[in-house]
Design a protein that fits this description.
The longest helix is centred in the C-terminal third of the chain and has 53 residues. It is built from 8 helices and no strands. Helix 5 packs parallel to helix 7. 68% of the residues lie in helices and 0% in strands. The chain is mainly α. The protein has a domain of 95 residues. The protein is elongated, with a radius of gyration of 33 Å. It comes from Escherichia coli.
């Protein structure tokens, strides 16, 4: 079943070290080189505003241990799970620090898509409002015409119906 049964026994039959990153101090995480940026995000992604991590993230990016694929993974994770009230500023600072153009393109695409979604949502709301207004106007007109027809059928003069309903009197 396994290519190397001996390796499988060593890997799957022995305990392996598990690290609880939530209790590891941030200062220690900052020394983990290649994996530091992802560990830091994993630890704090739900605890607070990402702006509070900005200085540490910039430091780790500047150290140059983070690969382009890690930066893409980091940004995707932040966009999906993170929170900041100042997203434009936060991602702008990261963009200015990064050297991985592919990573920033992903981020630019995310902002473009976010703008498109907001625009589509605004258009939908405007269309709904216009449709509501048109329906209300049509229903009001139909009810008014129906009411005028009833008044005429009860013998009220056209002039009186026109005056009460604020209609323009029609000539036969």
């Amino acid at each position: 079943m396994f290519y190397s049964p001996e390796l499988a026994r060593r890997v799957y039959n022995n305990p392996f070290p598990l690290v609880d990153i939530t209790i590891t101090p941030d200062d220690e995480i900052m020394h983990h080189r290649r994996i530091a940026i992802l560990e830091l995000l994993q630890k704090h992604i739900r605890q607070r505003d990402l702006m509070l991590l900005l200085e540490q993230l910039v430091t780790l990016i500047d150290e140059g241990y983070t690969s382009g694929s890690q930066l893409v993974a980091m940004q995707n994770y932040m966009l999906q799970r993170g929170h900041t009230e100042q997203a434009d500023l936060f991602y702008g600072v990261l963009r200015d620090r990064e050297t991985g153009g592919e990573s920033m393109m992903t981020l630019a695409q995310w902002f473009e898509e976010r703008g498109r979604q907001e625009g589509r949502q605004e258009v939908r709301q405007e269309v709904r409002q216009e449709v509501r207004q048109e329906v209300i106007q049509e229903v009001t007109q139909e009810v008014s015409q129906e009411f005028a027809q009833r008044l005429l059928s009860k013998g009220m003069s056209r002039e009186d119906v026109a005056e009460m309903g604020k209609f323009t009197p029609c000539r036969d």
